[in-house]
Amino acid sequence: MSRDCDRSREALLEVALGGEPAPHLQAHLDGCAPCRRRLEDDQRLIGRIDGELQASLELLPSPEFLPRLRQRLEEPAGASRWWPMDRLVSAAIVVALLAAGFLRLSRETVAPSAPSRAQAGAAPSTASASHEPITRSPQSHRVSTARPRSPSMAHRDPEVLVPPGQEALLRQVIEPIRRGRLDLASFPEASETVPQEIAPVVVERRELKDLGIDSIEIKPLTMAPNEEEES
Amino acid sequence: MNDLAGSVVGRLVSEAEALDLAQEFEQRLADSSALAFRVAYSVLRCREDAEDVAQEALSRAYRNLGRLRDRERFRSWLVRISWRLALDHCRAGRRRERREQVGADRPPVPTAEELAVASEFRERLWREIDALPEKLRIVVVLAGIEGYALREVAAVLELPEGTVKSRVHLARKRLAERLR
After folding, report:
1. Domain B112-179 belongs in CATH node 1.10.10.10
2. Smallest Cβ distance to B172: which of A41, A46, A59?
3. I need a surface site. Which of A48, A102, A183, A221 has the fewest CB within 10 A?
């Protein structure tokens, strides 16, 4: 086998696939019996591939195919034979979402929430204090006014500062609101005046001293002529 | 009164449209069912699985026929649905382990030796077809289905005829190189 035979191997396949041989390849083929046989083998192989492929796909569906299909098309759209897979996938997604939500809820339930701190009468945390410019009394108490619908909402509860001693009174007003009904008549204390201790204002006595000014002379304002031109 | 008349007319129109769609689909069914089945079979090579996939593909095509604006594209649309469903069926591992003999539906060859050789060649051929990249695979399969009428394949795949021609050429060349 010559070097030309090795080189022509690729080109022979192209010819077998229906290409025209180049002049130098044709010249080689004319004088090389093994390459001619190889070309014939390649052509036979290509024909066999095409034939087998066509023959394999000349199939027709079974006679029951169309009646079965027509029966299926008459069924409602939801009654697809493949529905169990779709539903299983949907159910799996729902379960995963529920599990994720449950995990999140359980984590937040374990963490301390704002209302629980308020009930314990704890001092305001430094983190939340840094967000509010108001200077607070260390005795001020935080009272959550929002209804604790879910633990995930707890960290967003608004907080108000109440004077010492008024926390219990405010809670009496807030609790009915939380429960969804507010009847002021049932809370007479809410309309009562809460006594406040007002510290007396102490003003130190000041001595007024004379500045030593006898009299003030008032003169009319006049302008020089050159100053008028410049202006 | 006008509302009632309008709703009745609307219902009649929609029923008439549904009837038209059903008739149109019925006309296409004879030709299209074989196409869907063959496309599915080329991927699955199991009659029962191919029929199941073709049924599903045709069922989806029927239910969504109203959404297909260009009805001339029905065949290409159906081929794509069948091809995708068959690949999904394969990937989901629902294909039966027991594959049919590829030549079971062909007339038997004269001798047992020839039958064995032919069967072995077919198995090798399909193994190599399965190993082709998808764009070459679908082109060569459709070329086989359509009897190598490249214009038909190009129309079904909505590709330029030149592209289909070069892909068929490349696919056959690769198959020949591996089956030499």
Report:
1. yes
2. A46
3. A221
Residues of B in contact with A73 (CB under 8 A): 59, 62
Interface predicted TM-score (ipTM): 0.75
**Residue A77 in this model has a pLDDT that exceeds 80:** no
Of all residues in chain A, the one with the smallest CA distance to B122 is: A52
pLDDT in tens, A120-138: 444 444 444 444 444 444 4
State the distance between the two ends of chain A, measured CA to CA, in whole angstroms.
114
Backbone dihedral region for residue A209 (phi beyond 0: left; psi -120 to 50: alpha; all else: beta): beta
Q: Which amino acid is at B160?
A: P
Alpha-carbon span B137 to B123, nearest angstrom: 16
The whole model's pTM is what? 0.54
Residue of chain A nearest B177, judged by CA positions: A13
Cα–Cα distance measured from residue A151 to residue A108, given in angstroms and rounded to the nearest whole number = 6
Residue type, A214: D
Give A193-221 pLDDT, tens digit per residue. Answer: 656 677 777 777 777 777 777 777 777 77
Q: The domain B2-105: what is its CATH number?
A: 1.10.1740.10
Token pair for B122: 């077919």
Distance of CA B12 to the CA centre of its chain: 35
Residue contact A66–B33, C-beta within 8 A: yes
Pick from A49, A62, A80: CB nearest B175: A49
Where would I find the H helices in chain A? Answer: 3-16, 23-31, 33-56, 65-74, 83-110, 114-119, 126-129, 151-154, 167-179, 188-191, 225-230
In chain B, which segments carry CATH 1.10.10.10? Answer: 112-179
Chain B: closest CA distance from residue A11 (Å): 11
